[in-house]
């Protein structure tokens, strides 16, 4: 917290910048996660909701990739996906190039379920950010635009950290 409190005229070093990012991002992510989870349908567990988010960010991902993301075993992940398939939130299909690989994609219902919770959480974050002045919000936007390419370098698709 020292970096937040002690502002000087000296430009921050990369280490100072990294320390501030590491102090601030977890606080922001905790709020985002809490908002997303509180706005998910009541009959959807947090791991199921996280699976929807992962499938949204990674269409065609494998069951193994989802299991790794969730920190679950393959059998537990398969059971979780079975429930999401039964609820018509995720489609599971065999990969035509590798019939042992199952690919996962969101259905239209899964996408709308996730999008609704996401929009509600975004609206709540907007309420929180409304406490900042217009200049401060412009600073936040500039900072996010600077950070995005640094942290998406090498990613195949745009990441959405809201439920990681």
Low-confidence stretches: 156-164
Radius of gyration: 19 Å
CATH class: Mainly Alpha
Please give the oligomerization state of what you see: single chain
The share of residues in extended strands comes to 5-15%
CATH topology: Arc Repressor Mutant, subunit A
Folded structure, characterized:
The protein has helices spanning 2-5, 14-38, 46-57, 63-70, 74-86, 108-129, 134-152; strands at residues 61-62, 90-95, 98-106. It is mostly helical and 164 residues long. Strand 2 (90-95) and strand 3 form a beta hairpin. Helix 4 (63-70) packs across helix 5 (74-86). The chain is elongated, with a radius of gyration of 19 Å.
Lay out the secondary structure:
Layout: H1 2-5, H2 14-38, H3 46-57, E1 61-62, H4 63-70, H5 74-86, E2 90-95, E3 98-106, H6 108-129, H7 134-152
Helix pairs in contact: 2-6, 4-5
Short description:
This protein has helices spanning 2-5, 14-38, 46-57, 63-70, 74-86, 108-129, 134-152, and strands spanning 61-62, 90-95, 98-106.
Features:
mainly alpha; 164 residues; Arc Repressor Mutant, subunit A; 7 helices; three-stranded antiparallel β-sheet
